[in-house]
Amino acid sequence: MTGTAQAVPGTGSAPPVPIPVPDDITTEFWAAANAGTLKIQRCADCGHYQQPPGAVCALCTSASLAFEPVSGRAKVYSYTEVRSGARHPAFAARTPYLVGLVELVEQPGLLMYSSFPGATLADLRTGADVVVEFERVSEQVALPQFRLADTGGDGDE
Amino acid sequence: MGQFEHPYGAQAPYSAFTLPALRFLHDRGMGREDLARVVVTQRSWAVNNPRALRRKPVTVEEVLDGPPVAYPFTRDMCCVVTDAGGALVLTSAERARDLPSGDRAVYLLGSGESSEGPLVSQMADPGSSAAFRASSAEAFRTAGVTHADIDHLMAYDAFAHVPLYALEDLGFVGRGESGAFIADGNTVRGGKLPMNTNGGGLSYTHTGMYGMFAIQEAVRQVRGEAVEQVPGVQTSFVQGVGMFFAAGGSLVLGKEPR
After folding, report:
1. Taking a C-beta distance cutoff of 8 angstroms, is the pair B126, B20 a contact?
2. What pLDDT digit, counting tens, does each position of A25-64 carry?
3. Nearest by CB to A18, which of B6, B24, B119?
4. Do A20 and B68 touch (CB under 8 A)?
5. Is the distance from CB of B240 to CB of B200 less than 8 angstroms?
6. CA Rg, chain A, in Å?
7. Is residue A144 helix, strand or coil?
8. Residue A14 contacts by C-beta under 8 Å, 6 or more apart in sequence?
9. In a 3-state reduction of DSSP, which class is residue B209?
10. Helix and strand tally (H, E) in chain B?
11. CA angle, B47 then A82 then A76, to 5°
12. Which residue in chain B has the smallest CA separation from A79?
């Protein structure tokens, strides 16, 4: 996969985050996100979901893959709060900022990144319920993000 | 793959390499104190080492109260940033015997290499390195030694969680036992597995490519020439890591040829 994230000039005052550049394999993921739907690539032969998408199924190597809408529900898997040292201007401007992984409810170990909009470090717990929303970062791109749900989780940190 | 990682600010080592640590601790019933104890124990090795950058003894509380870098990591849980250099001379055992310093030769008994995906989110279990497990198993197998034969361990430590992963993934302790193993004094002077005896990347040096210095300390220990010499080291194990958890390399070094 060759798609890389590149910064583009922002329109507002805050420096823009790196904007994802879709490639042949990821175009459908980003198109769905741009339309407000979280779709995850799934193997038609073995049923395995994979994220990021690939050319073949990472589990059974089948090339019969399709993007399927998922529930958008997930649990906080792990996280950090960066307090210093961010080199990218967007994240230097956002410091301290949260970044972490969420585990989609559809499959154990199906992880995605998130910035946890609206949350502080003190709010987060491993295992807490989160739901997807989309953060518009350009005319063509909306980033899946995960916000804490109203219910608690099973976390204990 | 960067398109799924970089927009969230998971770019630099302290926002990507550290990301699985909280989950590692959570799944094992461990806590930030376990990260701090890695720092405290390794600092104890660095205090007398004139080449180490961080030499002041620290307590668990002081490490936890240090400047936060990326939760749950404070400054001293992150490696130093230094300039440094190193070199190793590698030749055949036969040739080494004829060299003037042949009596100081250290033998490469076994080695292993492995890799896993480039994103921490793609690790089969972000709380365990498949690369560590495979590379170390290959090194033990090619060296023909077991864990009981290892007198000394160097475990690449860019951050304080990495030696915890290494102890478990290399099989020196069981899953979830790494924190207690360190807390019980097994990795310091007089312990059964002295670890990172130069102070490690956390206290000694880290140029961004620490592996050279881990190997050098193992060579010095096997030669009997280390600043903090562990008595009677016959066999040392060196574990390296690359591109966060994407790669692992392992060496077994010994005083005598196989």
Report:
1. yes
2. 999 999 999 999 999 999 999 999 999 999 999 999 999 9
3. B6
4. no
5. no
6. 16
7. strand
8. A90, A93, A94
9. coil
10. 10, 6
11. 115
12. B19
Read off the tokens for B105: 């030769």
pLDDT number for residue B15: 84
* Partner residues linked to B108 by β-bridges: B253
Close Cβ partners of B129 (under 8 Å, ≥ 6 residues apart): B116, B123, B165, B169, B241, B245, B248
Residue A125 to chain B, least CA–CA distance (Å): 10
B7/A137 touch (CB, cutoff 8 Å), yes or no: yes
Give, as one character, the DSSP assignment of residue B134. Answer: H
Sign of CA dihedral A150, A152, A155, A156: positive
Q: Which two three-digit tokens encode residue B193?
A: 């597995």
Amino acid at B77: M
Please, are residues B23 and B171 in contact by the beta-carbon 8 Å criterion?
Answer: no
By CA distance, what is B24's nearest residue in A?
A78
Tell me the pLDDT of chain B (258 aa) as tens digits: 689 999 999 887 888 889 999 999 999 999 999 999 999 999 999 999 999 999 999 999 999 999 999 999 999 999 999 999 999 999 999 999 999 999 999 999 999 999 998 788 889 899 999 999 999 999 999 999 999 999 999 999 999 999 999 999 999 999 999 999 999 999 999 999 999 999 999 999 999 999 999 999 999 999 999 999 999 999 999 999 998 899 999 999 999 998
Looking at residue B208, its amino acid is G
How far does A87 lie from chain B, in Å, by closest CA? 8
For residue B70, list its beta bridge partners.
A82, B73
Kindly report the length of chain A.
Answer: 157
Which residues on B lie below 8 Å from A99 (Cβ)? 8-10, 15, 19
**Amino acid identity, position A25:** I
Rounded-to-integer distance, Cα B73 and Cα B20, Å: 12
Which candidate, B164, B151, B172, places its Cα nearest to that of B253?
A: B151
